[in-house]
Amino acid sequence: MIDQHGEDACIEAAVNADRFLDKGDIEGAAVWRKIVKAIADLQAETGTIH
């Protein structure tokens, strides 16, 4: 997702979560929300670089 969408990966994942929610798929939306969090964590510019 990050390779394909770069800085917009978090937004794209959130859009997917919303699509699942719109279809009534709560579990699918929850999975996409976890993906949003994982992408945000990976893209965070905190900590030291080794």
Helices and strands in order:
Elements: H1 2-5, H2 9-22, H3 26-43
Helix pairs in contact: 2-3
Structure description:
With 50 residues, the protein is mainly α. The chain has one domain. The chain is 72% helix and 0% strand. The protein has 3 helices and no strands. Helix 2 (9-22) runs antiparallel to helix 3. The longest helix has 18 residues, at 26-43. It is elongated, with a radius of gyration of 12 Å. The two termini are 24 Å apart. The mean pLDDT is 93.
Low-pLDDT residue spans: none
What portion of residues is helical? over 70%
Describe the biggest sheet? none
Q: Approximately what portion of the residues adopt beta-strand conformation?
A: under 5%
In whole angstroms, the N-to-C terminal distance is: 24 Å
Classify the secondary structure makeup into a structural class.
Answer: mainly alpha
Number of domains: 1
Q: What characteristics describe this protein?
A:
50 residues; mainly alpha; 3 helices; elongated; single chain; 72% helix
